[in-house]
Design brief:
With 480 residues, the protein is of the alpha/beta class. The protein is built from 23 helices and ten strands. The chain is globular.
Length: 480
């Protein structure tokens, strides 16, 4: 079984967000499954925080993340020092290439041929699966949703619910085709039991276990892995070597702060007061301990995060990867995460992907938003996502603008800043729009305005400006 991804849809897929979204919109079952799942997630989140002063909790969570990210170098150094004192091998990777090379070297030194992998968005970010398979290491996803997506040849479609867009019937078909199994129905319990039986053999035979990291505790040098399945614990304890990949911003000062962020994460992500498994890993197996890995490696990935730290988008690094902003986003609810072409979908992806991967690759994502602000309202750590999206649109437009466009808008700005040229432009616009006005609207206009009218009507310029009406002594409502 290969962990490779389909080139048709998903990370690295050709085309724009619009093209990928159009392909997904042509699959009505995707929209149906997404809508049902997102509605259920919103209801569960609401129930999870009943009786809780969520505003106060979010304020504390935001303050914790803001403080930690502002002092990130200090907390990362403290965490690394204490982790290494417990026997953990810490490697700081500047980019995806360094992260992948390190893990490949670990696998080669240990002669690994089979890796079992827990959920890790950073591994998707750096393209780890493909790199290991090219080196002759079979990689098996063990999170149930990730495993389903791996069988389908697709990347995760959601930060916390990777196969959210799939029906039970699709899952049964994938299992039956991949394993030649006779599965009589799509009962979830039966499908889960079948996957458990298949994966159990892989856990026992694996040479290498790979996981992500939800939080790293600077006070103790620990890493924390939060899951609802036992696979995270199996990946981190059964194989002789455990490799954990972590974005450099995932550190917290101590368990006191962790106690605030954990309920914010689980309540926002899955609507639970506490998740099924919270694994605190303090290092490799000690000489008198009966189980655990012989080696623990933590790869701390920068991958562009240092650049974000220095700019106005720093608060995007506060994200705790709960996926709540995806669940309420009207755009994501229609197309799902595969349309974004990045491991990070939804509003957080529309901000983070261009910053990490560049405007050339992901510069269209900030426009994949209605700017309704629901993402900011639901974010458990108060990231102003809709404001970042507006700012990124300006940055992307500036990066794309040629010399002629820049000169045109400078001239436009100067004209609109003076009453005379502004009035002249208004009169010219009234004359130019006449062939296109229908029933008080402009349903179609020539290029470049056609890019606007393709999706919405354009209001026409008023027959008389406010100044003209004022000079004639007309009331506010007259002559519109």
């Amino acid at each position: 079984m290969s962990g490779g991804r389909s080139p048709a849809v998903g990370r690295g897929a050709p085309g724009s967000f619009e093209a990928r979204a159009r392909a997904l919109l042509a699959r009505p079952e995707v929209r149906r499954n997404l809508a049902a799942a997102m509605d259920r997630s919103a209801l569960l989140r609401q129930r999870a925080f009943e009786g809780v002063d969520l505003g106060a909790l979010r304020a504390v969570g935001e303050a914790i993340r803001a403080h930690t990210v502002a002092e990130l170098d200090r907390y990362l150094a403290r965490w690394a020092e204490r982790a290494e004192a417990r026997g953990t091998r810490v490697f700081f990777a500047a980019d995806a290439g360094e992260a992948v090379a390190y893990v490949r070297d670990v696998a080669a030194r240990r002669g690994a041929r089979l890796a079992v992998k827990g959920k890790s968005m950073v591994s998707e970010e750096v393209g780890l699966n493909r790199a290991l398979e090219e080196a002759g290491v079979e990689v098996v996803e063990t999170d149930l949703g990730e495993y389903i997506q791996q069988l389908a040849g697709e990347p995760p479609a959601h930060i916390t619910v990777p196969a959210v867009h799939r029906s039970r019937a699709e899952v049964r078909e994938l299992f039956a085709r991949a394993h030649g199994a006779d599965l009589p129905d799509d009962d979830p319990a039966r499908l889960t039991r079948f996957a458990r039986e298949v994966l159990r053999e892989r856990f026992l035979a694996a040479d290498l276990g790979i996981t992500g990291v939800n939080f790293a505790v600077a006070e103790t040098g620990s890493i924390v892995i939060v899951t609802n399945e036992g696979n995270g614990r199996m990946c981190s304890s059964l194989p002789p070597v455990h490799v954990a990949l972590m974005g450099m911003e995932r550190v917290v000062p101590s368990f006191r702060e962790l106690a605030v962020l954990l309920p914010l994460l689980t309540g926002s992500a899955t609507g639970q007061r506490v998740t099924t498994y919270v694994n605190v890993v303090n290092g490799p197996r000690g000489p008198e301990e009966p189980d655990g890995p012989e080696e623990l490696h933590v790869v701390v990935v920068d991958g562009g995060r240092s650049g974000i730290l220095a700019g106005r988008y720093r608060s995007v690094l506060h994200c705790i990867r709960c996926g709540a902003c995806l669940n309420v986003c009207p755009v994501f609810r229609q197309v799902g995460g595969l349309a974004y072409g990045s491991p990070y979908g939804g509003p957080i992806g529309a901000v983070l992907a261009p910053l990490l991967e560049g405007f050339e690759a992901r510069g269209d994502l900030p426009w994949a938003s209605s700017l309704c602000g629901a993402c900011t309202e639901v974010c458990p750590v108060g990231i102003p996502l809709h404001q970042h999206l507006v700012a990124l649109r300006a940055d992307a437009a500036l990066a794309r603008a040629g010399g002629l466009e820049r000169r045109t808008f400078r001239w436009w700005a100067r004209a609109w800043a003076s009453p005379g040229p502004y009035g002249l432009l208004a009169r010219l616009a009234r004359w130019a729009q006449r062939p296109f006005v229908r029933a008080g609207r402009i349903p179609w206009a020539p290029f470049p305005l056609s890019r606007w009218t393709r999706g919405r009507d354009l209001p026409p310029v008023a027959r008389r400006t406010f100044r003209e009406r004022w000079r004639r002594g007309e009331g506010v409502s007259g002559g519109a």
